[in-house]
Specification:
Layout: H1 10-18, H2 24-44, H3 47-64, H4 74-95, H5 118-127, H6 132-143, H7 148-155, H8 159-176
Amino acid sequence: MTGPPEPPTDEELLAAHVDGDPEAFAVLVGRHQDRLWSVAVRTLGDPDDAADALQEAYLRAFRRAHTFRGDARVATWLHRIVINSCLDRIRYLKRRPTTPLDPERVVSAAPGDDPPDALVDAVTEALGQITPDQRAALILVDMEGFSVEEAAGMLGCAPGTIKSRCSRGRARLAALLRDFPTPG
């Protein structure tokens, strides 16, 4: 007696999508959705902007699946598309600044939820003050737990560049968070 069939690999799903399978891409994205969302939110700092960037990234991946060469894992390829989409969104937002809403008029999306703690707010604000390249490197390596080599593949640069961006980003964050009270 044989067990249940093995689920298709990411590479098999991408190939099936390219061959016209109408459900393969949704299954593939579903596998990685939580981590891709996390990267987008942490990179952009705003769920609405993250949703826009992620939607754009999914469209790019859907349309360009035939260009996947297999040089990296499919998950790495998807992360790279998401990061690039987030960086594009950051550049777009810098060209078209918005006026923040009046806090008195903002309604909580989840009534009864506790607001994020002060440290999360401070780190999020500090991340918004470092360069997008440093932010992307720090989020992938320090927050998402990818190796330097994996992050380099996702961002399309050398591992040494990732190490440098992380080092400079950490130093900048340390300076920005210097006055934040430490617990205990």
